[in-house]
Amino acid sequence: MSATDTLDKTGTQTSAVRLGDLETPCLVLDADRMDRNIARLRDRIAGLGVTLRPHLKTAKSVEVARRVMATSEGPATVSTLKEAEFFADAGVRDIIYAVGIAPWKLAKVIELRKRGVDLAVVLDTVELAQAVAAASRESGMAIPALIEIDCDGHRSGVLPRDSERLLAIGKALVEGGELRGVLTHAGGSYAARGEEALRNAAEEERASVVNAAAILRDAGLPCPVVSVGSTPTAHHATDLTGVTEVRAGVFVFFDLVMTGIGICTVDDIAISVLATVIGHQREKGWILVDAGWMAMSQDRGTAKQVVNQGYGVVCKCDGTPYADLILADANQEHGIIMVRPGSDGTLPDLAIGDRVRILPNHACATGAQHRRYNVVHGTSDVVTGEWQRFGGW
């Protein structure tokens, strides 16, 4: 049997599925790149003496989760209760739901905890702490919660210097619930540029939660978990003293936004969208493909960076990027490939029916448009697996 043949369920020899056999547009995952990305951060975090709690919102896939988590039971981070339930069904038992909890969702949290899932929630108001404490008393089961800290003004959370609010939340929570610790996300790091700025963002993130934890402990409140996390800071932290765990998600696949920040290179990006050439507008310098914003998403995260990548960087079918070729514009199901404005690149001679792969601006957003990964390895066009992913809430 040749290296490109497989056996079906009956043991009959069959020809391997190749990228050229797939219906397009579809999502392609280079498992070799993914494995390198995972090993890179896992080794780095281990060297800093803390636990990696990967965020599974990017992958939304059991197969990927099992490769990135330390054990089959976790630890893990999720962004929706559907994710928590999905991964719980797959045996994951140590989960943080890292989005501010809505009171009506507490019933689902209790249901999952009764199944043996150590599911913790996140909150940043006295009102939510009171709701968690009340639901805990009513159910007879203490719901663990982490207080979200605002380390950089990016989004939600308690300011680390606001000790009065922090203590009020902690005291309300322990009246029935469980104060598990503090948590922050350095979302502002996405705007940082350069090694020094990224290291500073990582230290600001660390200091904010360590100081908040000290305030709680000095008041006699428990704070066993001190959780930080973003892909840029995870790759640039040099000191995590006082931190117990790091959360990150997009590092598994990386994307063009991370490339623009300087966290990875284009050659590290593990997912792409396979598309087919369906037309030309030669006088305009366009190549049309069947991957529009429904396949790529409308995320234009590189538009504010030094290099605007349009809707994505265009590659050959083996994953090698064409020089200065981008998906410059998109309609719902049409993508327009052009040479990057102002560059010296030339439009490749692609015929109707030829295939290209397009690297995404934002791995989470592009992944959300699809329901499976077609798995390849390196420059090979042989599809070695089809891994299911899910969406929704």
From TrEMBL:
<dbReference type="InterPro" id="IPR029066">
    <property type="entry name" value="PLP-binding_barrel"/>
</dbReference>
<dbReference type="GO" id="GO:0036088">
    <property type="term" value="P:D-serine catabolic process"/>
</dbReference>
<dbReference type="GO" id="GO:0008721">
    <property type="term" value="F:D-serine ammonia-lyase activity"/>
</dbReference>
<dbReference type="InterPro" id="IPR001608">
    <property type="entry name" value="Ala_racemase_N"/>
</dbReference>
<dbReference type="Pfam" id="PF14031">
    <property type="entry name" value="D-ser_dehydrat"/>
</dbReference>
<dbReference type="InterPro" id="IPR051466">
    <property type="entry name" value="D-amino_acid_metab_enzyme"/>
</dbReference>
<comment type="similarity">
    <text>Belongs to the DSD1 family.</text>
</comment>
<feature type="domain" description="D-serine dehydratase-like">
    <location>
        <begin position="270"/>
        <end position="377"/>
    </location>
</feature>
<keyword id="KW-0456">Lyase</keyword>
<keyword id="KW-0614">Plasmid</keyword>
<protein>
    <submittedName>
        <fullName>Alanine racemase domain protein</fullName>
    </submittedName>
</protein>
<dbReference type="Pfam" id="PF01168">
    <property type="entry name" value="Ala_racemase_N"/>
</dbReference>
<dbReference type="InterPro" id="IPR042208">
    <property type="entry name" value="D-ser_dehydrat-like_sf"/>
</dbReference>
<dbReference type="InterPro" id="IPR026956">
    <property type="entry name" value="D-ser_dehydrat-like_dom"/>
</dbReference>
